[in-house]
Give the backbone structure.
Amino acid sequence: MTKIISGSDLASSLEEKLPGCITESNEVDVWVSPESLLPVCEILKDPDGLDFSYLTSISAVDYIDSFELVYHILSMRNNYSGVIKCRCSSKGNIRGEPTVASVTGIWKGADLQEREIWDLMGIKFDGHPNLKRILLWEGFDGHPLRKDYLG
Amino acid sequence: MTGIRTEPITINLGPQHPSTHGVFRLRVTFDGEEIIDAEPVFGYLHRGTEKLAETRNYVQIVTLTDRMDYLASMSNNLAYVRTVEKLADIEVPERAQYIRVISAELQRIASHLMATGFLLNDLGALATPLVYCFRERERILDLFEMLCGARITLSYMRPGGVFQDAPEDFWPSLDSLIGDLPHYFDELESLITSNEIVLARTKNVGLLTDEQAIDNSMSGPNLRASGVKWDLRKADPYEIYDRVKFEVPIGAIGDTFDRYLVRILEMRESVKIIEQCLEQIESGPIRANTPFFIRPPAGEAYAAVEGPKGELGFYMVSDGGVAPYRCKVRAPSFINLTPLRDMLKGWKMGDLIIIFGSIDIVLGEVDR
């Protein structure tokens, strides 16, 4: 069985390497501050450390007051999985276009998934090599998976 | 040839091209015969499944999942209902789990047959191997018709079990199919596996190393063809997969031939799984007692199954209502396209078609 690393375990091992990167954690989940997302992911992928070599999926959820990015990550060698979350909202305008760092430099598999999130949820990924709309066409107005989108 | 001015040329492959198996467009830039860049363009089949799911109740969404990977509806159903069961904490009766595993494995065989047949079609072996593959697939679809009345968009599974028990005449038909399938595979392999032209066209073509495959989040037969022994049925057994014995076939170097061979070997393993299920299955209830309007407690769940194309997962968030707050699909066909550009670079137009074909995508799932 794939072991699930609990949020508090992840939080303590991350906090040890990078103090102040965790905004909140409980038994199940761990929230990372948007500023430290990139260094945290580098720590997670480190083959000599936690060895999360495989990015399973990135999901985005619109919680109206903020957006949440959910990274499901997996270590194939040790057969355990973990979940990292990141709350983001744009400063000033709450429904604007929040920006977080792209993890494509760490896991290439994030490429199309981040483009999909930008397309449908309207979260910008800083440092993505080709951040264009992917399922809808360029020039489409709005981001349909947002809760305030009127189709 | 010095002194001749050359420049790269960009060609659109698709969206209406027979080898794209759907509506998929590839903007390919050539330098002479050689591919120097390729950009996939898709979304022509985008129906907004994830948004539609937010306005439907948990039973209704089953029909939406059919229409994602329409060559593997059973696996889509299974991935979805498992997520709902995890979210709402529903226990599934044992007989239902066996029936689900049997139908999911049949679906894997049907899907891999399509992949193999169309790969040969792309290679230029027009229609002959494809018809052989369709012959077996047809019998599997007949079995699905017995189960639920439908052949493609099945909607057979429900949160908590399956919608009805298999009819009496299903079991003898399944037995005879299981007896015939290994011979069918032998026949298919005698046509393809040692065929000189197939070997020349596929060996060492479109290499994807194990490191690249993991880095690009590849899953399913594509990942295993690159030599990574990772199968959710073994690594994180769901349903009753921990009670059956089977091997996880892996490829040697991750070329187009390995991706073909892994699918053939996987189909043989699926037959073994079904045989063991038939020995172990006992009578009993086939559906847990769940209300039509399932209201899972507020929370979230991620569950995945090893679908024919790869890891098919659902991430669902519930706010306690009758419809999910968010229903995100981790679509294997979509994510398997990530390394396409790297795989195509340096190859020629004819290789493009088979490298792309060997990844085995279904556009309904890519675009959702």
